[in-house]
Amino acid sequence: MWIDPSRPAERALVTHGHADHARSGHGAVWATPETLTIMALRYGTEMGTPVPYGDGFEHGGVKISFHPAGHVLGSAQILLEHAGERVVVTGDYKRRFDPTCTPFEPVACDVLITEATFGLPVFKHPPIEDEIAKLLAARAANVDGCIVVGAYALGKAQRVIAELRRAGYDAPIYIHGAMQKMCELYAAHNVPLGELIMATGLAKSELKGAIVIAPPSAMNDRWARRLPEPITAMASGWMRVRQRARQRNVELPLVISDHADWNELTDTLLELRPSETWITHGRTDALGRWCELHQLKARALDLIGREDEDEG
Amino acid sequence: MQAFAALIDGLIYTRSRDLKIRLIADYLRITPDPDRGWALAALAGTLNIATVKAAAIRAMAEERFDPMLFRMSRDYVGDTAETVALMWPDKSGGDVAPTVSEVIDLLNSTSRARAPAVLAELMDRLDANGRYALLKLATGGMRVGISARLAKTAFGQAFGVSVDDVEEVWHALRPPYTELFAWGEGRTERPDPADSAFFRPFMLAHPLEDASVHLDEFVAEWKWDGIRIQIASTGGETRLFSRGGDEVTGSFPEIAAAFKGIGVVDGELLVRGEVQGGEAASFNALQQRLGRKNVTAAMQAEYPVFVRLYDILFEGAEDLRSQSWTARRDRLEMFTANLDPARFDLSAVIEARDFEHLAEIRAAAREAAIEGVMLKRRDSPYQAGRKVGLWYKWKREPLVADCVMMYAQRGSGKRSSYYSDYTFGCWTEDGNLLPVGKAYSGFNDEELKWLDRFVRNNTVARFGPVREVEKSLVLEVAFDAVHVSKRHKSGVAMRFPRISRLRRDKPAEEADTIAALRAMFD
Fold first, then answer.
1. Is domain B203-389 given the CATH code 3.90.180.10 in the classification?
2. pLDDT attached to residue B290
3. How far is CA B87 from CA A22, A51, B82, B84, in A?
4. CB contact under 8 A, A122 and B83
């Protein structure tokens, strides 16, 4: 039994639908119903056993259950219980409000296997309302052009759209073709995204004053040539660091992340106080050092093939 | 402070010069005195807070953060001030953010020992972007890609005054420049430039192209391949300005110190190179001195600089700019005679019988420091900018070589979706291609589209943002000179390479060899 295996495995528990966690080709898959739908959309008709939040099952004497992680739609932490010992694998998570998914639930445990994507004390994500306000202000100041927002197609794009709606922006939002199906999937899961229009095939004049959401890879590529005087925005936790934003030719960095920032990571550790913490996915060294300073037992768990900064 | 922080971040993320000017101009118009004056000083590099040095920022960090966590963070971010600004805890209290002038007043009125504590109190009243701007303001290194001249240009644009008028009074004023703003807003007369040395815009030349001129009307001089420089001295103070109007006195202090005349002269800054028997060395050597705010004595000794004078704009307080070139030349010759010959000499006039003879002399000139020939109307006044028919530059014929495209990278700004930067190579004796240069200009929009498609359709490997392409496309590359280079594996480096033609007709095997390039060394 594997969790988020990076190679095809006979039995896989999948925390959420991002490509570096949910691969195709496994024998049997257990995941939340939402994650299975996302995998089916991405990989065709993949079968699996749906495990709703809070539900569990037994395998080889281990009780396995799924709990909300607040990362993207369907994202889960996985709790393993055996002989009175409890191990929680957080998968990717965040603690902030997100209108597109079920909020994180702290799960008491003996061993916590935590992600650390933004595990450096420089990463503190500002309130999303401030970043959305920046985006709306830039749009208002640039009605003759458009704003193209780079956002990961699963999760980030829908969150940015939902937050724009929450801020009262009710104009149509234009999306890259690669996001259409995922947005429909979110809408079908009761995440209202308002009116979305495919930007592909529209004349430049139709996109004046528009907010366009596109995958980061399309932003500086040929696809973007169809846009009228675009200002390049990017929604990512990495945008906190100026040089990172500049390297990617970003003119309007939006610090919006679906991962826990430094304070969320450390607050979660203090809240759960596991007797042991294993750190994976990201800056294991810095979070490990913090644990040492706070007398928490911790070790780094090195995984390979887990670098996808677009996902931040 | 928030408006200033927003301006700083805007400048960091904006690549277009015009947009940068607009951002600064907007800020200067709507921000009250004296905040905007301090901000202008920070952008123009004239703000100096003596109580805060970079070490104070590090001391502040070491006192508050675990050294290991700080080092890991600093390594990731790459900038100490930004790291401290980001790591600093957000205070949720209702403190009012300080204004720029409050920051300046507090820091100026404290001692060096007390400064870190004062800075820390200010940090507690700001958000992450505000803290970043505060630390950059306090240490003086803004790093937002703004030159002093650009800041002055933005001031001119904000208030509809000419940048030359700003320039003239600039050095007589001190931050926070309230008199400057009062004049800009039309509330007072222009401030008195007093006894200060300031920049006058350079007179520039048009390319000669295929025209020819008559040497009765035009005088010919060598065009030297150095840094065009203006020296302005009132006797009391001497300043050096680059072609863009930025002060470079700090980079070449020995020139300022050696200049004993009173007036304003125009010349070319060159490095005296032993390799050329005491003559001017190539631009290569001069680059070692460029962009340095301060230079060591060792640098001064290793790259001894001198100025080859072209023209004189003022002698004493007398404005010579409306006089003819011939009259100014007489004055320049007398003026130069009183200067230290180790640091200043005259740019010689080329004696040619006629234009054809001049063309022969130009073609025969092989000295590295010669970029070409200048042709100046004998009756030309000294006028700012490029004026039709007065001065021409007649560069040496560019050298050309047929090279093979090897790698491509995307451009920036409007070109960010195009592969527009090309690395090209020439053949070694044993039939390998080695890179010899990189070019991103010389082609038109149609050719760019074609090149972009070529790169995408012929990619054989990717290294991050770089694509390696099939070695099949021959580019004719034009360049001004070729030098020995230790940095390139090929051992050669081109000066000003640009694509002159796409040689789609030519097989890659027939491109030039590195040996052929070496044969073009001066």
1. no
2. 62
3. 33, 40, 9, 5
4. yes
Tell whether B73 is within 8 A of chain A (Cβ): yes
Task: pLDDT band for B51, please (50, 70, 90 cuts).
Answer: confident
The whole-number pLDDT of residue A310 equals 42
Verdict on whether the full-model pTM lies above 0.90: no
B296 in contact with A, Cβ within 8 Å: no
**Nearest residue to A90 (alpha-carbon basis) of A119, A110, A69:** A69
Q: Is B511 helix (H, G, I), strand (E, B) or coil?
A: coil
CATH superfamily entry for domain B2-139: DNA ligase, ATP-dependent, N-terminal domain (1.10.3260.10)
Rounded Cα distance, B90 and A126, in Å = 10
Interface test with B, best of A120, A134, A291, A307 (most B CBs within 10 A): A120
Taking the CA of residue B497 and the nearest CA in chain A, the distance in Å comes to 25
CA atoms within 13 A on the CB side of A62: 13
Q: Which residue of A has its CA nearest to B127?
A: A126
- Give chain B's mean pLDDT: 89
Which two structure tokens, joined as six digits, stand for B411? 């451009």
Residues of A in contact with B9 (CB under 8 A): 242
Residue A135, SS3 per DSSP: helix
Chain B CB contacts of A254 under 8 Å are none
Say whether pLDDT at B94 is over 80: no
The answer for residues whose C-beta is within 8 angstroms of residue A248's C-beta and 6 or more apart is A216, A220, A234
Best CATH choice for the domain A2-122+259-311 from the list 3.20.20.70, 1.25.40.10, 3.40.50.300, 3.60.15.10? 3.60.15.10
Nearest CA-CA partner of A227 in A141, A148, A137:
A148
pLDDT over 50 (residue B275) = no
Sheet containing strand A252-254, edge to edge, reads A196-198, A173-175, A211-214, A146-150, A230-235, A252-254
Which of B69, B79, B132 has its CB closest to that of A289? B69
Q: Which residues in chain B touch residue A122, judged by CB atoms under 8 angstroms apart? A: 73, 76-77, 83, 86-87
